[in-house]
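Exercise: predict the structure of this protein bound to copper (II) ion.
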Amino acid sequence: MAATATATALVFALAGACGGGKSSSTSAPASTAAPSASAVVLAKNLAFSPKTVSVKVGGKVTWQFEDTQAHNVVGDGLKSPTMTTGSWLFTFDKAGTYRYVCTIHPFMKGTVEVS
Ligand SMILES: [Cu+2]
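Solution:
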């Protein structure tokens, strides 16, 4: 008798819990729910283009190497391989201003703003 009463109470409790919520959105993992902006920087003709890109925290920047000369992306935590073709991707998990250069051509400068 006592056991039955407890079980009945439990069923009501669960039903109440289900009806109480007014959630209209389907729950998705936070990692995929937040849209993260991305940007592409071209390393070509001895220059980074555009010189400055802005992405959100968690955003990705892809450097695309399309030059006859080899370049890299170095500075403020960035350190790409030296490349003439192909691409290199970096994910920015912290807000801030990241300045980088090509160490082979120090006049090649760029900035990534993460906010
Ligand atoms: Cu270079």
